[in-house]
Write a structure and sequence with these properties.
mainly alpha; about 80% helix
Amino acid sequence: MPSATTTAARTTAPVRQTREPAPGLFLTLIAVCSAVTAANIYLAAPLLPLMARDFGSAPSAIAWIASIAQLGYAVGLLFFAPLGDSANRRRLVAGLTLVTALGLGASAAAPGAAALAVAMFVASAATVIPQLLVPLVAERAPAERRARHVAAVIAGLFTGIVGARVLGGLAGQAFGWRWVFAGAAVLTLTLGLATAVVLPSRRRREGPLFAGLVALPSVLRGSPELRRACVRQAGMFGAWSALWTSLALLLTGPEYGLSTATAGLFGLFGLTASAVAPLAGGLVDRFGAARVVRSAYLIAAVSVPLFWLGGQVLWALFAAAIAVHAALVASHVANQTLALTATSTPATANTAYVVAGFAGGAAASALAGAAFSHFGWGGVCGVAGVWLVLGWGLSRSRR
């Protein structure tokens, strides 16, 4: 039987802690890891013509593959993102990194469209790593700088999305689409495991592993601030998605007659996000999330008539693209910071927030496609305007 001295020694022995990098290096690593992993979801879109040629089909016949990646990401968000409140983050990120890399490698070797779709679904479902890291960043950041730290990760996310659309297409033309997926697998494996090493290794909460998923409805019911953030970002992301996913139809149509490659360069306007995110973070820390979201909605409201004018005037499209990206990112930084601090379960709250935004964007994109077919570019702008009105009006009515 152990002595009292032995027992005291055991209870007072120091707990072994993982050596963590400097805060600046830690934040940079997470932002870069988020950029690389977020890019995986959007790799297929610029590579569809190359895939179609390789598989002997028309690009329109395999366009659904890009949607498979979005579906996989949505499933991954729902099942894996809430685990950040309970699971061992180091093991979780390492495991998801390995699955993502294997899925990307299988995509590179896929013999046909069906096999490619399955591999991309798996890779996209596991590449939800950024949404596990954002709550950790918010948790570690000083209260007066929390939004700026969250904004750094968001800047990384949008940089990855732009890089996938622009650099992915260029690399595909130079080396082939299979090498793009293989390179993404290597980058994901390297940065994902490097990030996992510096994460906390202890389990955060005891209890069922999927308790966060089960608790999602009650977390939403119990936090009016979280619900407001979800509704407002669903409206904002829906407006952006309606305009941005339909823009290629306008640019490659009879109004402008641009090539697909030239139209794809409009994705560079997404770099606006990388510049706006840190600024938005500072404004949230200084003036609060509500003011920043209100300003973002005003900017988005101005961008809609500019987009409509851009149906005939190219310079208006340039101005509108910059404005809508600035509005989207400012709103995202403010609303996500609010969501992460609204409850005692930030990973579960973040899941609700991201899924709500994703659902709003997917619904608006689908409606915008039908609107373009029946009413042209003006119909798309109308969908975007309606989504902004709904996002702001519904959130105010539930105050």
